[in-house]
Amino acid sequence: MTRRNPESTRRAQECIYCLRLLEAPEFNREHVLSEAFGRFHKPPMLDSVCQKCNQFFGDELELRFARGAFEGMLRYQNGVKAPPEGAINLQYVEFAVPEGKGYWSGVRLNLVNEGNGLRVGLVPQAAFFDQDQQRWIHVTEEEFNGGFLTKRPDLKKGQMRIHTRSRQEHEAFVSKLSEHGVKYEQAGELQPSEDVLEASEMEVDVTFTINQGIRRCIAKYVFNYLALVAGSEFVRERDFDVVRDYIRHGASLRIHWLSKAPSRYCTMIDPHYARPAVTFSP
Ligand SMILES: [Zn+2]
């Protein structure tokens, strides 16, 4: 006697994201919150997200969010994920020396794991004085290679500082600058500041970007959670199409629409954190 898989007996249903009507085998179990952010004893799951949407979200939204965003850094900090050895590139997070540290203010830093946890380190860089803004602009080698000076040709003529970790690195950086048409004549030495990079602990400025991809990823977690507590049927309502389009395609989210929530729904969230009672009034 063979046991029937309860999944195979389930009726075809619409995916809560693409709304395609599909048979049960075309769905996989979707974690409401990506496993990248932690494993739970009984993780909240959905069975109403199709494989294609699941794959798309994993590749297009969650990978960049978990690896490049501020939350990516928190995963390393909180031990959810072991940091890789060496310099850690987080695409949407930047570190710098805060104001009030003399000529070190604004110096760009990177995140490094040298086997003893996360540390900040100095990235070879040049700083140009911007006459209009009356402040120093710090530029890394990567940004020079990315055509920074063609966007700001005015900066080439002003004062310049070079921050590197060694004489050798300094010379390599100067020759890199000459490839970009920047002439550098050294007028003096910058004294290392003991309370900045030599200190065992230092305060740093952290600047992180929340772009559309990150917003869409967070919106997906919220929508997943809504499907979990309110049920898949509820979120399949066409009123949510605008949210679906935003999550799937980045279509502009008409925020004003949310303030005009259809009056026919009356949602009461159970205070005991169970499924909400959803009442449809005529
Ligand atoms: Zn789908």
Topology:
Blueprint: E1 13-14, E2 21-22, E3 27-31, E4 45-50, H1 51-68, H2 70-77, E5 86-88, E6 93-96, E7 108-113, E8 118-122, E9 125-130, E10 135-140, H3 141-145, H4 148-151, E11 160-163, H5 167-179, E12 205-208, H6 212-230, H7 232-235, H8 241-249, H9 255-259, E13 265-268, E14 277-280
Antiparallel strand pairs: 1-2, 3-4, 5-7, 6-7, 6-12, 7-8, 9-10, 9-11, 13-14
Helix pairs in contact: 1-2, 1-6, 6-8
Zinc ion is lined by residues 15, 17-18, 20, 50, 52-53.
Summarize the structure.
The protein has about 280 residues and is α+β, with helices and mostly antiparallel strands.
List keywords for this structure.
single chain, 282 residues, alpha+beta, three-stranded antiparallel beta sheet, 9 helices, 14 strands, 30% helix, elongated, disordered N terminus, disordered C terminus, binds zinc ion
Report on the structure:
The protein has 282 residues and is of the alpha+beta class. The chain has two domains: 13-69 and 212-255, no CATH class; 83-208, no CATH class. The chain has nine helices and 14 strands. It has helices at 51-68, 70-77, 141-145, 148-151, 167-179, 212-230, 232-235, 241-249, 255-259, and strands at 13-14, 21-22, 27-31, 45-50, 86-88, 93-96, 108-113, 118-122, 125-130, 135-140, 160-163, 205-208, 265-268, 277-280. The strands form five sheets. Strands 5, 6, 7, 8 and 12 form a five-stranded antiparallel beta sheet that branches. Strand 9 and strand 10 form a beta hairpin. Helix 1 (51-68) crosses helix 2. The longest helix has 19 residues, at 212-230. It is elongated. Residues 1-9 and 256-282 have low confidence and may be disordered. Bound molecules: zinc ion (ZN).
